[in-house]
TrEMBL record:
Claim: Iron is one of the keywords in the record: no
Pfam assignment, any one: FAD_binding_4
Every FAD-binding PCMH-type domain range: 65-244
Domain of life: Eukaryota
Cross-referenced Gene3D superfamilies: 3.30.465.10
Name recorded for this polypeptide: FAD-binding PCMH-type domain-containing protein
InterPro entries membership: FAD-bd_PCMH, FAD-bd_PCMH-like_sf, FAD-bd_PCMH_sub2, FAD-linked_Oxidoreductase, Oxid_FAD_bind_N
GO molecular function: FAD binding; oxidoreductase activity
Annotated family: Belongs to the oxygen-dependent FAD-linked oxidoreductase family.
Amino acid sequence: MVRAFISWMSVATVFLSSGGITVTTNATGAPPCDLLIEAGLGDRVRFPSDPEFELRIQSYWALDTRRRPWCLFMPHNATEVSMGLVALLQGTDNVHRGAGDWHIAVRGGGHTLGHTNNIEDGVTIDLFYLNETTYDPATNLASVMPGSLWREVYPVLHTYGVVVAGGRDGGVGVPGILLGGGSNYYMGEHGFGCDTVRNYEVVLADGSIVDANEDEHRELWRALKGGGINFGIVTRFDMEAIPDIPLSYGMRTMPGNASGQFVDAVVDYTDIQQQAFPKDALIALIFSLPGVEVLATAEVNTAGVLNSPGFDHFARIPQLTPFTPVVTNLYALAAVTSLPGGSWSLIETLAFKTSRQMLNYVVERNRQLVADVGLAIGPASFSSNLIYQALPSFFADISEDQGGNMFADTLGGHNAVLCTIELMVTTTQRDHAVASAMFRQFAGDIRSYFVAIGVDHPLVYLNYADAV
């Protein structure tokens, strides 16, 4: 199905340099791992010889992030996260230098690209065992832990009749979505996922465990709302819950030669329809292979309204297949909207002010990229997604009404489109490297063009940003 082509990336990591940290005499050949053992955390450490180590590495979404650190540290609670950070960053008695330059990465769901949630030279803190979800009806807060995937969170909340403004792809992890921003189906009414976080439980670099919210550590609370994980390791997200009303969901498919009408519909939706129909949510996608191009939309209404008039412009485009939306709950939808991993992946995120000229240029330049990559590595070696999402200016007002976030001020005053380009290579690392050079040139051309025509936008959206 076309929905299998859609992926939404998450950013779920910190990359802390520990060059110069003092360490004890090593017993395993990996001094930082020895520090964890000496701190009494040996049963939470996994080495490459341990079966669970390889299972966790193979569970990373993209092949290019399946790196092998010296060890994995797999804490079970915030206290153990704190103990581990203290051990790694401060050392123990009878210390000496000797580990050289090493690093710490932190993993949530494992969807982030680049070197941000796994590392070869150092320790990866894997939060897999921090995976509980609870709900307090007295406060209407859902407490979600960072080791969970959204397809694990929603069924628990469904039993209470509530949901949260979390990820749309059920296989994506919790922390990357919420710390990078959090596009979701409820944005027209509730804003980004990070806007609905009322409290973060955070382990700071000195090992202290604090609550960050509107009343305590307010600056940290705001910084974590879309600012990434460089401020600490979040061990619990307390989110405002939303009634779990069944929503309508449908995938529309259209021929590639209708891209002009498709772009017109995206602009119309961004500038007019999203605010007129705030319960609607849209993901507009162009899936490409050499010689094949399919236009698609995921159309959602969070009140369960079928065929919402907010999508009428898309309904007027010729269809490849009948449009048959369904009414379902988010927990069921998230269970079937996960993109399989196992590819060498490239991603770029770009934002620009609403412009038909700009959107059409990206479509044409993407066609050229697909053709060029196909000639270079073979047409059966990859696939490409070009995704447009609306960023109308009123999203900024919703965010500010809930205490603000780290990027809302870039959205006010003008409507914009968030453009995400993904290229997934299924063959070899060499093919990935060849495609990567062409992909970077493509992204540079896009940036140069939107500056040249005056529609550039300051937002770099962390959820879809590569480390490069």
